[in-house]
Amino acid sequence: MATLKVRKLKSFPTEISVPGDKSISHRAAMFAGMADGRTVISGFLPSEDCLCTVKAMQAMGAEVEPLEELEGVGLVKLAITGHGPKLKAPAGPIDCGNSGTTIRLLSGIVAGQDFSVEMGGDASLSKRPMKRVADPLRLMGAKVEGQGEKICAPLKVTGGSLQPITYTLPMASAQVKSAVLLAGLFAPGKTTVIEPVATRNHTERIMSHFGVKWLREGDAISVYGGQTPRATDITVPGDISSAAFWMVAAAASPGHQITLKNVGLNPTRTGVINVLLRMGAQITSSETHSEGEPLGHVIVRGGDLNATVIGGAEIPNVIDELPILAIAGALARGSTLIKDARELRVKETDRIAAVAENLRRMGVTVTEFDDGMEITGGAKLTGATITTYHDHRIAMAFAIAGLFAEGETVIEGSECINTSYPSFAQDLALFQSATQGDSPIPVLARVPRPFTGKF
Length: 455
Ligand code: S3P
Prior knowledge:
Blueprint: E1 3-6, E2 15-17, H1 22-34, E3 38-42, H2 48-59, E4 63-70, E5 74-81, E6 94-95, H3 100-110, E7 116-120, H4 131-140, E8 143-147, E9 152-158, E10 166-168, H5 174-184, E11 190-194, H6 202-209, E12 214-217, E13 220-224, E14 234-235, H7 240-251, E15 257-264, H8 271-278, E16 282-291, E17 293-301, E18 309-310, H9 315-318, H10 322-331, E19 335-338, H11 351-361, E20 366-369, E21 372-376, E22 385-387, H12 392-403, E23 409-412, H13 424-429, E24 448-450
Parallel strand pairs: 2-15, 3-14, 6-7, 10-11, 18-19, 22-23
Antiparallel strand pairs: 1-23, 3-5, 4-5, 4-24, 7-9, 8-9, 11-13, 12-13, 15-17, 16-17, 19-21, 20-21
This protein binds shikimate-3-phosphate.
Shikimate-3-phosphate (S3P) is lined by residues 23, 101, 173-175, 178, 200, 319-320, 343.
């Protein structure tokens, strides 16, 4: 088990370029693997989660060419050659690692094939509910077998001749929406997903990028089956969920300023900026480029933060940022309330329990509710030993808390960070060195080079 030791912040970098967006990297690999030719993916996130997706598409017949790696980050550019949406049966089970996005979206793709695939993953993934994708995929005609009432992994999905459905999401989940839309590509006619609360729309945007026609009527999103994605090169923007850690570090540091470069600014993901603005943070963003997905630089200037209430329809937009926003709440004046966020209980771990427990270890008063928590801000944080429960966002959120704590914070089981942000420790080190101050940081000197490693 790896540990990451964090001390109070000593220096402040002026710029950080976060790695590629996890949700978009998964989808880029999937659509490239179902397309009719060669797609070059730049800005890819070479995290364990996304590499599971690439390997899965490779196991089902797509050709993968590693093109470029970034020192300390990994494979950031690759080409995937697909042979259309009808894939090849894999030789064995598919390992989805820790990745809910891989197993749930692939279930949608496999539902449209004429073979069976077994999909498994680590202990954390094996506890997560897959019934939410099994239900609509069974309605469409696929056979989905899993463990217990929650239909947990290992899952066996047997594709069938699918029927289109109209499906109202019982929970706000982009993964379920995407699984149904992907299966819809294999059903004759119009498959519709109704989402009562908007969730991230990367699947819809990437369908447009790959020339797949879909339509939105109110809160209904529909696709027509029988379309072949057209291979089209794609650049993945930086992940706003990864940038969020540095946003909070900067927002709570009076006198400091950081520029986060080339961050994805899709409005279904920028809720974290809105919440921090509401807490009194000074944040500006400038959209520099918009080709399929908007992106730009985000500048955060430190100051004093005030408590806020986070809930309702904004929850899906900040779902992955709630652990780090809870840390922002602990650093703010007043009590911050997070509500309507029951979904946090079924993430990589129960994030309500994990955040509450670890914040208490650092000296913060937290009241836990079924659907959220109230955090009493303004206490002096003390360094503590943090249990991550194999959850990357718990590990990173508490590493940021450690920057504001007296003494040492020890993140136990920090290897889970590799599932979404393999270069996190390197970027964190920019806040720990006594000598760097506000000078330009070495991370900018990372140079791309031809891929030499083993894929
Ligand atoms: C994701 C959707 C969200 C999010 C996850 C990635 C996606 O999950 O928490 O990290 O890429 O579609 P849900 O759709 O289950 O809320």
